[in-house]
Amino acid sequence: MKQRGKFKQLIQSDTPVLVDFSAEWCGPCRALAPILKEVKSTLKNQVKIVKIDVDRNPQLAGQYQVRSVPTLMLFQHGKMKWRQSGVVQAKQLLGVLKK
């Protein structure tokens, strides 16, 4: 319950928050990690990137109807602005985040 409150507070940010719903056993999730690192190094403080393990946070995953991993969601001011499941290339992700 405490985690959910922290999450709600986190996504209220003025800074866009990219949430990566993933799992340790997921191959595509591991493939996404260096892409997210590249995006973070390109955008620096213009975006927050948060990783949520669906196995450790099943309530949160359920609340946002995460059915497959990885699932990326972009929040700003508490509202979801974008959502995509699967591996997203850095170029596409940067395009979404710069909008």
Structure write-up:
- The chain has 99 residues and is α+β, with helices and mostly antiparallel strands.
- It has one domain: Glutaredoxin, CATH 3.40.30.
- It has four helices and four strands.
- The chain has a four-stranded mixed β-sheet with strand order 2-1-3-4, covered by helices on one side.
- Helix 2 crosses helix 4.
- The chain is globular, with a radius of gyration of 13 Å.
- The N and C termini lie far apart (33 Å).
SSE layout:
Layout: H1 2-11, E1 17-22, H2 27-43, E2 48-53, H3 58-63, E3 71-76, E4 79-85, H4 90-98
Parallel strand pairs: 1-2
Antiparallel strand pairs: 1-3, 3-4
Helix pairs in contact: 2-4
Descriptive labels:
4-stranded mixed beta sheet; 99 residues; Glutaredoxin; alpha+beta
